[in-house]
Amino acid sequence: MVMTRLTNRSMAFVLAGGRGSRLKELTDKRAKPAVFFGGKARIIDFALSNALNSGIRKMAIATQYKAHSLIRHCQRGWNFFRPERNEYLDILPASQRVEENKWYLGTADAVTQNIDIVDSYDVDYVLVLAGDHVYKMDYEIMLRQHVETGADVTIGCLTVPREEASAFGVMAVDRTDRITDFLEKPADPPGTPEDATVALASMGIYVFAWPFLRELLLADSADRHSRHDFGGDLIPQIVRNGKAVAHRFSRSCVRVSPDAPAYWRDVGTIDAFWKANIDLTDFSPELDLWDRHWPIWTYSEIMPPAKFVHDEETRRGTAISSLVSGGCILSGTEVRNSLLFTGVHSNSYSVLDHAVVLPHVEIARSARLKNVVIDRGVVIPEGLVVGEDPAEDAKWFRVTDNGIVLITQEMLDRRAAG
To answer: What does the entry list as the binding residues for alpha-D-glucose 1-phosphate (predicted)?
Structure first.
């Protein structure tokens, strides 16, 4: 007997309205889920690809902060859903559908304001996802646990060292993984029953039966004291009055190999964003972007192959331990341990070392750029040196505590004017 996949009866509701202020100037023009990642993709592509690869064909994306870049990306890269096959992807901007002065007030309110749209999907289960994390996960496994345990809500959880757990919402669980307490960024996180040195941190992934969640959302919307937030209001209420169960990410993570660690990253700071991209240049990166069985779907521009020009002693187009995307031209530039997004053009005698270069950047001759993140469309002037003198870098650019330098066009314009 063939068992019907629960994903066929489910929808994914992706919360993609957050700014991501810790990414500083990278989110001045785009929401965090729309930030570029991995050479071709955007961060939101991971949640959407996980849903698609798991078998979910009904999705909604709630947007709010500076949503144009995100909406345009989804329209271009995720426009293959066909309503005649009962497939849907709806983009749901905060559009004052309920009241003229009411935007999305919290994560739960983003779903509440679109109850009629979720109703129209005619689904049994709703998977609520954060759209700003990088990971690969089979949601079918989590859905099956939800049904088998009879939970009111199932929450995706990471196992993290206790000393790092204070940055998360943390679950206290019993030996059956039933959640007994939910603590938002606790100073002293509880350990797990089997290991007191680690804690279970929320991934911002929730599974509900839609009739249960619908009733819960309506009650929450009528509560004037609620912040209308899943982590702040609805989840603690279910923990107190219902049955909340933890789903351990290690059970459903899609890995490079069976013994590989479970890969999940919140690339919410410049340092974390730089490191996660640079990690992809490793010989065997923990995140496998080459896996054809669990691909990361995205919008791909029509571009020619990457091109490497010149072969002289000090003027050779080379890339070592690097990812170079389509449309790039390395004309006499040396690239090491770097990730170049689509359409980067770099000229003679320049050196890129541990650089994350976003799409369509132009690099003039004799630039030396080390430990940098360069925003989309930046024009690097001739002879610019970054990453060798921290004090000089800090005069013009944003330098993190770990010495990573963020370069935007506005910063370069101020430098040229100053």
So the answer is: 104, 169, 184-185, 202
